[in-house]
Amino acid sequence: MSIEHKVPSIISVGGRSSALAVIQSEHVAELIKKTFPHIEETPITKYKTLGDNVLTKPLYSFGGKALWTKELEDKLENKELDIVVHSLKDMPTTLPQGFVLGGITKREDPSDCVVLKAGSTYKSLSELPQDSVIGTSSVRRSAQLKKLYPSLKFESVRGNLVTRLRKLDDPQSPFACIILASAGLIRQGLTNRISFTLNKDEMYHAVGQGALGLEIRQNDPVMQHVCDMIADKEATVCCLAERSLMRSLEGGCSVPIGVESSFNKDTSILTIHGCVISVDGTEFIEASIEKFIDDVNMDSNEAGILLSAKLCELGAKEILESIRFDDIK
């Protein structure tokens, strides 16, 4: 019997319980049903993770990416789920024993964007008055902006997307704007709240940002086939290289590592840029490489390793090793 004929009629999909996570799980379920017409059901189960439950502290202060994945992996291991859908930027670059990244779907806009307080007329960050407060819980974002705009202030803002927008628009709130991933706003139909996006001249985006990662059990050829059929080559090449870079630099989701990548399918050339920056924005290094991609997994991973080596030659390790998150205000 071919692997295609082994695909079951019901595939259980799991993800976090936030509004955005549910939209992402539904998107993957639809991709599966479109690709495999014989599938009758793709039930979606929603779970709260530790990262969802602890909303009073900045992420860097109480854990890494396992905040978003541990509870879901337990369900996957127990075979209560067949596929777990993650925002790829929330997935650890090294997964626990028994799990693999089965596939990466087509990427949404990976950029960061500025969302101004309702009624604001500013057109750029450079127009904001001195001491304007920027809302972001990301060290990567605040570090890059401190480098360019030392007169601005930065405060953590947590909660789901609607909560953060409400905090921003509250007339009593201190925030002039907040920085968010463009993809989250686009997926939730809130594109109108994007005041302007930031390119790498102002903001390198997070590793895997805008992409969805499909986690499955190791040695599950049927679910691996399902993931292969709905995966996107361009997103896979770029994101595997970005994740390899982060893994090689031994960086977690809270460290100031930024990337920008593109893959030309006609020439099979991957171009990947990366930066490492100190928390206060005073030390900044960046580098880029191009690599021909023949074997997607092997060559994409090698690209990340090569870029990591280039950044390390410029001092990336020293910057990362000097970071003490207890000192971050």
TrEMBL record:
Tetrapolymerization of the monopyrrole PBG into the hydroxymethylbilane pre-uroporphyrinogen in several discrete steps. One of its GO terms (molecular function) is hydroxymethylbilane synthase activity. It comes from Hanseniaspora guilliermondii. Pathway: Porphyrin-containing compound metabolism; protoporphyrin-IX biosynthesis; coproporphyrinogen-III from 5-aminolevulinate: step 2/4. Residues 11-224 form the Porphobilinogen deaminase N-terminal domain. Its cofactor is dipyrromethane. GO terms for cellular component: cytoplasm. Its EC number is 2.5.1.61. GO terms for biological process: protoporphyrinogen IX biosynthetic process. Residues 237-311 form the Porphobilinogen deaminase C-terminal domain. It is an enzyme of class 2 (transferase). This is Porphobilinogen deaminase. It catalyses: 4 porphobilinogen + H2O = hydroxymethylbilane + 4 NH4(+).
